[in-house]
Design brief:
This protein folds into 2 domains: 93 residues, Box (Proliferating Cell Nuclear Antigen), CATH 3.70.10; 101 residues, Proliferating Cell Nuclear Antigen, CATH 3.70.10. By secondary structure, it is of the alpha+beta class. Strands 2-3-15-14-13-8 form a 6-stranded antiparallel sheet. The protein has a 4-stranded antiparallel sheet with strand order 11-10-9-12. It has a 3-stranded antiparallel sheet with strand order 5-6-7, with helices on one face. The radius of gyration is 19 Å and the shape is elongated.
C-alpha cells in the first residue's frame, strides 16, 4: 500500500501527542498522550489490513520520508518500507508495553460551544511563545466570548486577547495548557463540558481531539 499524504501528515501530528501507536485493521487511527489527557481519533482513506504496533512513530516516519515514493508492506511481525532496490524492515513493538487508547470517549453534554479558525489557533500559539506564557483560556463575560493566552500563575503578566465575536449570556473561563493543543492545522468546532473535558472537531479532515480542561477552570 501507499500512504495517502493526509494520512502521513496526521501521523506526524499524532507523533507529537505520543510516539507509541497501534493501528488496528481498518481506516481508523487513534492515539493518546502518555498522561492520558489528550486523545485523538482520525478516519482516513487508507485501509490497514493488519495491525501495526509502533514504539517510536517519529523514527518510523523519518525512515518513511527518507524515500521519495515508497510502498508500505504490512506483515505479521514487521512492516517493510521499500522503493526500487532499497527497503527498510521495521519490527513491530509488543502492544502490551505501548500507551494507546483502550476505548472510545463519550462526550458528556456540551455547556459551551465556539468555532476557532486554524489561523487564530496558530496566532495564539505563536503569541504565547513570544510572551513566554503557558496558558490559554476561552472566556465568557456574559456578553461575548474571547480567547486569550496568559500566565495563570501570575495575574500581572502580559496577555494576548482576541474577541471571537460569539455572543453568550454565561460567565466562565475554561483554561488549557498551550502545550496540550497539539492540533493538526485546521479550523475547529470546540465543544466544552463542565465535566472538565473538551472536544475539538476539525473541519479539514475527519479528526476529533479530546483535551482535558484544567481544574482551575470556572463554569457559570
Amino acid at each position: 500500500m501507499k500512504l495517502n499524504k493526509e494520512t502521513v501528515e496526521i501521523l506526524r501530528n499524532f507523533a507529537s501527542i505520543n510516539t507509541n501507536l497501534v493501528i488496528h485493521p481498518g481506516k481508523k487511527i487513534s492515539t493518546m498522550s502518555a498522561t492520558k489527557d489528550i486523545l485523538a481519533e482520525y478516519e482516513g482513506v487508507d485501509n490497514f489490513q493488519k495491525q501495526v504496533s509502533i514504539f517510536n512513530l517519529s523514527e518510523l516516519l523519518g525512515a518513511y520520508s527518507s524515500f521519495g515514493d515508497p510502498e508500505l508492506v504490512l506483515e505479521d511481525k514487521n512492516l517493510i518500507i521499500k522503493q526500487g532496490k532499497q527497503q527498510v524492515k521495521y519490527i513491530y513493538a509488543d502492544e502490551s508495553v505501548l500507551i494507546t487508547p483502550k476505548k472510545e470517549i463519550k462526550m458528556p453534554s456540551t455547556d459551551i460551544e465556539v468555532e476557532l479558525s486554524g489561523e487564530l489557533i496558530t496566532r495564539l500559539q505563536k503569541m504565547a511563545s513570544i510572551l513566554s506564557v503557558e496558558d490559554l483560556a476561552i472566556v465568557g463575560d456574559g456578553k461575548t466570548i474571547s480567547v486569550k493566552v496568559f500566565d495563570a500563575k501570575n495575574p500581572t503578566a502580559n496577555e494576548f486577547v482576541v474577541d471571537v465575536e460569539v455572543k453568550t449570556k454565561d460567565v466562565f473561563q475554561v483554561n488549557f495548557k498551550v502545550e496540550k493543543l497539539r492540533l493538526y492545522p485546521s479550523d475547529y468546532k470546540v465543544e466544552i463540558s463542565s465535566k472538565k473535558i473538551s472536544k475539538w472537531t476539525a473541519t479539514a479532515v475527519k479528526l476529533t481531539v479530546f483535551i482535558a480542561v484544567e481544574t482551575t477552570s470556572v463554569f457559570a
